[in-house]
Amino acid sequence: MFINNNPMSNKAASVFFDQKFSETYDERNRNLSPIFKNLHFLLGLVLADLPVNAHILCVGVGTGEEIIALSAAHPDWQFTGIEPSVPMAGICKEKIQEIGLADRCTILNGYLSDVDQGANYDAVLCLLVTHFITDHNERQLMFNDMYARLKEGGYLINADISDNMSSPQFQSILEKWKVMHKHSGASEQALENMEKALATHVSVVSKDKMESFLRGAGFALPVQFFQSLLIRAWYSKKE
Predict the structure, then answer these.
(1) Would the pLDDT of 131 be above 80?
(2) Domain Methyltransferase, which positions (predicted)?
(3) Kindly report the CA angle at 220 between 35 and 238, in degrees rounded to 5?
(4) What global pTM score does this model have?
């Protein structure tokens, strides 16, 4: 949720999520928990038709909140999480161990390219990750790679910061976005620089562009099922 001050590629994004940032990540987002609880609830509904023993790949798993949310309702699901930040992956492993999920979860430090090739997963989750990839070709390749790792009939669920920043409505929703960040503890300087950060430090693209990435990967019908201010989420089924 919190945005870095430097443009990032897939490989560089992990630098921002250092030990200090990772240790405070959950606390920073605590005031935003209603957003994520709603998103996680809807994830469960979208994925309700998966097999009882489904295997889920979580790309950029962070501190593991989506695994924790989904595992409670699906006791036979298995999870693999991949996370480029060493501190974030470590915190995720600790949380998984503490709540007794270690036998159902594999947490790896690395990138999507480090996950075994092949269509091995019933669903791939990628939540608030790809907007950190500022190169559009690299971003498209990431969606392609997630598609390739899905079984036939499997779902990709992605959530990203997405909007048309040149639209007449953008300035209005940006002000509400700032209110949200103020509620979660952002400094006045961060609020003042918010629009610049969205324009230059991450890749905020329109709904149509996001769906073109998904179609370009091979998904015929991306469906937006969630929006909370600038956060949108889609599910896409591999047919």
Answers:
(1) yes
(2) 56-154
(3) 75
(4) 0.89
pLDDT digits (tens, 9 = 90+) for 9-35: 444 444 445 454 544 545 566 778 899
Domains and CATH numbers, the chain: 13-237 (3.40.50.150)
Q: What is the Cα–Cα distance from 58 to 126, expressed in whole angstroms?
A: 6
Instruction: Name the burial class of residue 128, with classes exposed (0-12), middle (13-18) and buried (19+) by CB atoms within 10 angstroms of its CB.
Output: middle
Q: Are 60 and 83 in contact (CB under 8 A)?
A: yes
Residue 223, number of CB atoms within 10 A of its CB: 13
In 3D space, the residue among 96, 89, 88 whose CA is nearest the CA of residue 70 turns out to be 96
Instruction: Report DSSP state, residue 162.
Output: B
Per DSSP (E only), the strands in the chain are 55-59, 78-83, 105-109, 121-127, 150-161, 223-228, 231-237
Chain-centroid distance of CA 89 in Å reads 14
Q: What is the pLDDT of residue 184?
A: 84
Tokens encoding 140 = 């498209």
Contact call for residues 134 and 8 (beta carbons, < 8 A): yes
